Amino acid sequence: MKLHYCFSLFLITISSVAYGQGNVLKKTLNSSSLHRPKASLSTDYYHRKCPDAEGIISQKVSAWIKKDPTLAPAIIRLHFHDCALRGCDGSILLNHKGSERSAFESRTLKGFRLIDDIKLELERRCPKTVSCADILTAAARDATILAGGPFWEVPFGRKDGRTSLAREASMVPHGYENITTLLEFIQGIGLDMLDLVALSGSHTVGRSTCHSFMDRLYNFNGTGKPDPSLNVNYLMLLRKRCKRESDLVYLDAITPRTFDTTYYTNLMRKVGLLSTDQSLYSDARTAPFVEAFATQPFLFKSQFAVSMVKLGNVGVLTGSTDKGEIRVNCNYVNAA
Questions:
Q1: Is 0.90 surpassed by the pTM of this model?
Q2: Signal peptide location in the record (predicted)?
Q3: Where are the domains of the chain?
Q4: Do 191-311 and 52-171 fall under one CATH topology?
Q5: What are residue 102's DSSP bridge partners?
Q6: Which residues pair with 156 in a beta bridge?
Q7: Is 100 known to sit in a ligand binding site?
Q8: What value does the mean pLDDT take over residues 186-198?
Q9: Are 174 and 213 in contact (CB under 8 A)?
Q10: Binding site annotation covers 203?
Q11: Could you give the C-alpha distances from 199 to 61, 144, 309, in angstroms and in order?
């Protein structure tokens, strides 16, 4: 209930900017029902089947991120890519020719070895019980906490999908879409505008290849000029950093290793790295949310937790459906 209350406070805070008072109440009621865990998912799903499951996942995530801090944003991103295509079914983890994971668009994804390590231990302790989809969802929560982000309870009970297609990987946003396109995508998986702005806040940590924004530096939209929405000093810095398209740049130039609201204040200063990031402040529909999150860190973290629960509920396979299974190895579907 705490998250529901914080979410309502957030909507009231921005009502004078983005909504009329009547619409605030309507939005609060609608969104509160949307982010409740699906009836077939439960936070105590493994309490009897595998009581140490969450603890094992948390310990493994902590150990790996301690050795390599870049895994924290990587696991959050991997979870988003999984849920964005076919729902949260672990399809991004399938490692075969023609899978999402094998696609060109997935080449910079990482964190697979961490998930494999968790699965190996869970199979030793609780054979054929904990799904890869649940592992990835919980790992994303734990990675967020280790980066300095909020805690939320993860509802469990997802099954693993058997289908993963490389051609579908291009459907995930690449960093240059406009807000209308992003909204159409996010609404297509059952989320909304507020979720879009909140989940984009994960870019407060992590890095991007220069390939994702190189056009902003030299030839924005084929104009032969840089993106006019880019801070001039930041433009010069990025030109120095991006000698090759494969070079990596922090998504948050100010506090790149801290999960905070600097990402949003960067957008207000025209220091958003990806075109999709900066567009959140350039577009009148999403700018009020950016301003609210930038000035009220508690509200951002509360809403981020709510939106992550909603993301984790997208298109899940549950129950005894013949479309899902509990994979023994996250890389492959079970043998017939």
A1: no
A2: 1-20
A3: 52-171, 191-311
A4: no
A5: none
A6: 42
A7: yes
A8: 97
A9: no
A10: yes
A11: 21, 12, 11
pLDDT above 70 as % of the chain = 88
Phi-psi category of residue 296: left, alpha or beta, with phi > 0 → left and psi -120 to 50 → alpha:
beta
What is the C-alpha separation between 157 and 317, in angstroms, rounded?
Answer: 8
Residue 284 buriedness (CB in 10 A; 0-12 / 13-18 / 19+): exposed
Query: pLDDT-based confidence at 320, cuts 50/70/90?
Result: confident
What fold is seen in the domain 191-311? Peroxidase; domain 2 (1.10.420)
Q: Which of 35, 47, 79, 81 is catalytic?
A: 81
How far CA 331 is from CA of 28, 117, 133, in Å, comes to: 40, 12, 12
Mean pLDDT of the region 178-201: 96
Q: 96: which residues sit within 8 A by CB, 6+ positions away? A: 102, 164, 331, 332
- 4 classed as catalytic: no
> What confidence tier does 314 reach under pLDDT thresholds 50, 70, 90?
very high
pLDDT at 38: 57
Find the mean pLDDT for residues 29-35.
Answer: 37
Measure Cα distances from 159 to 51, 117, 296, 301, 327 in Å: 18, 19, 37, 28, 8
Q: What is the CATH number of domain 52-171?
A: 1.10.520.10
Six-digit token pair at 40? 């077939």
Token pair 């008072």: residue: 21
Q: How far, CA to CA in Å, does 254 sit from each of 72, 226, 248, 257, 294?
A: 18, 22, 15, 9, 14
> Using an 8 Å Cβ cutoff, are 113 and 95 in contact?
no
Residue 204, annotated as binding a ligand: yes
321 labelled as ligand-binding?
Answer: no
Residue 252 annotated as part of some ligand binding site: yes
> Does residue 314 contact residue 161 with C-beta atoms inside 8 Å?
no
